[in-house]
């Protein structure tokens, strides 16, 4: 597969690309490839609108992508309130600032029932064939080359479809990753378990609030229909002891964040609790006839809520790489290797920062001193918030400040 993409037997392909999974990564990849003129089939077992477990927070880099694609106005029009301030209560002090970046002053957190429907509709409008309520039973191979899918619709009708490339955009339990034996690397175990629900009568006034209490954390932010998502998190080492009474333990966690807890006590729970605990990994995202995008290829703890904008960036990278391969500008291997390297270079520092942040353990004294200093500077507070929003790379923010602190603590011998 080092030459042009799917060069053997192209006449038998009904599609250039089949994409398995029609949410943030899959629908956007389908939309972008269809806009480039490629024949795309997008399948998902869900019918839209439908919900899925998600923090559904989109920081400014994700909004910039939606704006590039002409979809941001649709998201804003759903009445999802803007979030212009992030507040991190670390116990002894708090860091409060703006996530502004890439031309956007705010973030949004649309429900996945809203966002995914917008993206699936955009893929269809762009020319992709969308097949909802379709379950993939088998990934098809010719030797080591992936050639298509076999599956069935909700009415039981079966279908066999072939393509030059099959894309797995089906998340953690990706059928494409499983069938191809996609190799993982830089893996970390599950760090935290999170449970969340939605509350009515809990106004946030444009705030994202997070409280770190060492052995637990809680966060809240506004979403559609005047609801607020409230998430409680506990270390995996404590999860077994807590899982028997999720609601009781969520309220106990909220009691340790009095300002938020008192407001929640006056609100009304609107939905049931749902939970998640995810491993942290990279997977090699390509091989003969197949690609992985979004969570199927790279996943991390949701504490920094990077998943949606990571999926958007990955979709753009993979669409460009595939277009290069189809046009013969580069071989499939060259294009996808470059896409993998670009992905890893962009997200690795946030991957490590997120894993460290998720431990909820007290930072070493030097880091405590740095964060305290950050909390006392308006500009530094904004810069820290931009790190958590994925606007500023962690190494850029922390590296500069640690160098500064070292200079201030070391006698000048010049």
Automatic annotation (TrEMBL):
Decide whether keyword Oxidoreductase is in the record. Answer: yes
Q: Which domain of life is it from?
A: Bacteria
List each copy of the FAD-binding domain by range: 16-345
Gene3D superfamilies per the record? FAD/NAD(P)-binding domain
Q: Sorted alphabetically, which InterPro entries does this protein's record hold? A: FAD-bd, FAD/NAD-bd_sf, Geranylgeranyl_reductase
Task: Could you list this entry's UniProt keywords, alphabetically sorted.
Answer: Monooxygenase, Oxidoreductase
Q: Does the keyword ATP-binding apply?
A: no
Question: Recorded GO terms, molecular function?
Answer: monooxygenase activity
What the entry lists under PANTHER family is as follows:
CONDITIONED MEDIUM FACTOR RECEPTOR 1 (PTHR42685:SF22), GERANYLGERANYL DIPHOSPHATE REDUCTASE (PTHR42685)
Q: What is this protein called?
A: FAD-dependent monooxygenase
């Amino acid at each position: 597969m080092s030459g042009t993409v799917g060069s053997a037997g192209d006449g038998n392909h009904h599609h250039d690309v089949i994409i398995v999974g029609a949410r943030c990564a899959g629908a956007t990849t389908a939309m972008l490839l269809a806009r480039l003129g490629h024949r795309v089939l997008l399948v998902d077992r869900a019918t839209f609108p439908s919900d899925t477990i998600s923090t559904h927070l989109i920081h400014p880099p994700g909004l910039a992508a939606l704006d590039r694609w002409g979809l941001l106005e649709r998201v804003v029009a759903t009445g999802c309130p803007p979030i212009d301030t992030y507040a991190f209560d670390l116990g002894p002090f708090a860091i409060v600032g703006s996530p502004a970046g890439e031309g956007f002053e705010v973030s949004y957190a649309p429900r996945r029932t809203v966002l995914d429907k917008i993206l699936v509709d955009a893929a269809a409008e762009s020319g992709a064939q969308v097949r909802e309520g379709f379950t993939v039973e088998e990934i098809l191979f010719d030797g080591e080359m992936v050639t298509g899918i076999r599956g069935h619709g909700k009415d039981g009708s079966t279908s066999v479809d072939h393509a030059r490339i099959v894309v797995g955009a089906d998340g953690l339990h990706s059928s494409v990753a499983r069938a191809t034996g996609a190799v993982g690397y830089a893996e970390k175990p599950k760090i935290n378990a999170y449970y969340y629900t939605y509350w009515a009568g809990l106004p946030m006034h444009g705030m994202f609030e997070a409280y770190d209490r060492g052995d637990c954390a809680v966060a809240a932010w506004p979403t559609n229909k005047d609801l607020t998502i409230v998430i409680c998190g506990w270390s995996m080492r404590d999860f077994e002891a807590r899982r028997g009474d999720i609601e009781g333990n969520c309220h106990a966690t909220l009691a340790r964040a009095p300002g938020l807890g008192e407001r929640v006590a006056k609100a009304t729970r609107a939905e049931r609790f749902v939970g998640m605990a995810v491993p942290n990994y990279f997977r090699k995202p390509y091989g003969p006839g197949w690609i992985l995008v979004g969570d199927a290829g790279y996943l991390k703890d949701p504490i920094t809520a990077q998943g949606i904008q990571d999926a958007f960036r990955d979709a753009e990278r993979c669409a460009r790489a595939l277009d290069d391969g189809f046009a013969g500008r580069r071989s499939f291997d060259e294009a996808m290797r470059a896409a993998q390297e670009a992905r890893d270079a962009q997200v690795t520092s946030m991957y490590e920062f997120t894993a460290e942040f998720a431990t909820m353990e007290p930072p070493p004294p030097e880091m405590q001193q740095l964060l305290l200093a950050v909390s006392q500077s308006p500009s530094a507070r904004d810069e820290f918030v931009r790190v958590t929003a994925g606007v500023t790379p962690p190494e850029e923010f922390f590296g500069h400040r640690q160098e500064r602190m070292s200079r201030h603590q070391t006698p000048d011998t010049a």
